[in-house]
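Predict the holo structure. Ligand: alpha-D-glucopyranuronic acid.
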Amino acid sequence: MPRFALIRLLVLMLLGMSGTPAAAEDGYDLWLRYRTVEPEWQQRYNPAATAIVQQGESPTLAAARAELERGLAGLLGRTVPAAREATGDGAIILGTPDSSPLIAGLDLALERLGAGGYLIRSVTVDGRRATVIASGSDIGVLYGAFRLLRLIQTRQPIDRLDVGETPRLERRLLNHWDNLDRSVERGYAGLSLWDWQKLPRFRDPRYTDYARANASIGINGAVLNNVNSNADILTPVFLEKVAALADIFRPYGIRVYLSARFNAPMAIGGLENADPLDPRVRAWWRAKADEIYRLIPDFGGFLVKANSEGQPGPQDFGRDHADGANMLAEAVAPHGGIVMWRAFVYSDEEPTDRAAQAYDEFRPLDGRFRPNVIVQVKNGPIDFQPREPFHPLFGAMPQTPLMMELQVTKEYLGFATHLAYLGPMWEEVLDADTFADGEGSTVARVIDGSLHDYAHTGMAGVANIGNDRNWSGSQFDQANWYAYGRLAWDPNLSARAIAEEWTRMTWGNDPALVEPIVGMMMGSHQAVVDYMTPLGLHHLMATGHHYGPGPWVDDLARADWNPVYFHRADREGIGFDRTASGSNSVSRYAPAVASRYGSLERVPEEFLLWFHHVPWDHRLAGGRTLWDEMIVRYSRGVEQAGAMRETWAALAPRVDAQRHAEVSDFLAIQQDEARWWRDASLAYFQSLSRRPFPESYAPPAHDLDYYRAIRTPYAPGN
Ligand code: GCU
């Protein structure tokens, strides 16, 4: 080892001992790092962690105990022994009234907590001080164990606890867009975790770490395969592999689900059609469901993408979405399964505005779905753009449970190398008011079921997880996995609070670290919006892989695949008129929302060009013309990317070397690509607007032809 490197290593090791940066972290541990707390905190925590007392056994209780043992050993720097009884002060007692006489004796009224809820309380048992982690269910105990560890990880006192929590949504799912060959659609974190070829015999220990990470934030289900699904996943060979994963995940409260290809009865069942009203087809699905449940008794159910982007569906047989969903729902109902039917549909020929199509197809079906069907709706009406208004279906289907689908992976937000913390974007959507039942009918209240009294509730996050050592493609993308899980647990949490929690666990509790990192995170999404698609612009990415700018693209087979279709820029102005004078898709919102979005004066500026076609010289509230404002925003985004880089550079002494270097390199890529986005977009728009750049703003570094000629055919995730 060269001398310089050796000295650096020694310095880092010394720092590691004093509680600041530890050497050689690669991000594998996620937010469950359990690094030893500072001595003063050790002293405070020690008396409240002398033993881990667990009575009764189950795989889930064992997982809870194991996590406490592991976490406390790391955090407190010593082994906290497991025991069957509390013999002195400071025991941590975990369990359910059924499994633990100690907990049963405490009369904690746990019934009120509901499924998965837990209570952590400082109590006295037989005159001895103790902390109980109690729940009516084993899984609640596991969630409580992670919560107690989180309290320590974030340096909260634990001597006078009274914390009770219940998840607000029933299904908190990851959707993996993983293919059977281990490629991941829109995945930027390596290959799929699921090593199908080696399953079911080889059970990679990483599957357990995946389950631990998910359980730590309350995720309780995983759809294992891509929505663009291959029917082979439903064959016996694969079902055995799926069952192996289900066995590993079960103790962590994670049920597996599968994406079902609608024409599977034809593809693997030898039937001539997949008509949902054909009795043979229905019988095939019932038998398939029975077969699955024999192998996986707690199988969650099916996710279906039908009649969308070329996927087969009931419309191929002259039936509608409700017919298709109900057939599958009937097959899984006897086993307690559900069907999540996606509303991300747009037909092959449909000439109307895509922003209205899902609404127009699904709203008339409200009331026609079986009780175990949930319609899964993306956050916005187009497709996971950097910023979208909320989807008009939210609030519009009072008789059909709707769950929200978010994209954790950053298909349209710079892949893994751009730092974009998505908490604020999701918070914005959840807080949006649908006015479905007067003011205060927020999207969060639609999906938590309180607005329409839904029988099922849920959220789905398109996973950003792969076999990269850091799981998510970048250190900061772990925050999006984390934030997604936390919001699925409680859609009312604040994005900032989640960012702070994650930062403390992932990077450290030093305020000199927490404050700048949270600041970076909170501004990062807006920065990306600014340098890619400011003021409500959308779908300007390059073709196919969506990597880099392509606002000029106008030659794709379908009009609505082309960026020019979405921005509609010409000599006079820019933007998609979705008001009554245009596509009128704004009319799908409740009147109070429609009138706001539909008004050029009252529409929020961030959605201006989403709903309006606006002349370049139109003056915005701040006094600038639209053209000048676009330049200001694009430039601001680039500046912000540069500012993040500077902030991060200054944190070098406080962050372990490997992770710091990785983030630094990625931020450098981001800054370059932000500039690319700005310059390419403005060079193109200027070719239409023919307006000058304001004096203090640099013109694009190259001419438009230069940007148009850039090709990146091997960009990942396609
Ligand atoms: C986007 C994405 C596709 C994906 C689709 C979907 O269009 O680019 O890769 O299949 O969404 O959500 O079904």
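The two ends are 40 Å apart (CA to CA). The first strand starts at residue 51 and ends at 54.
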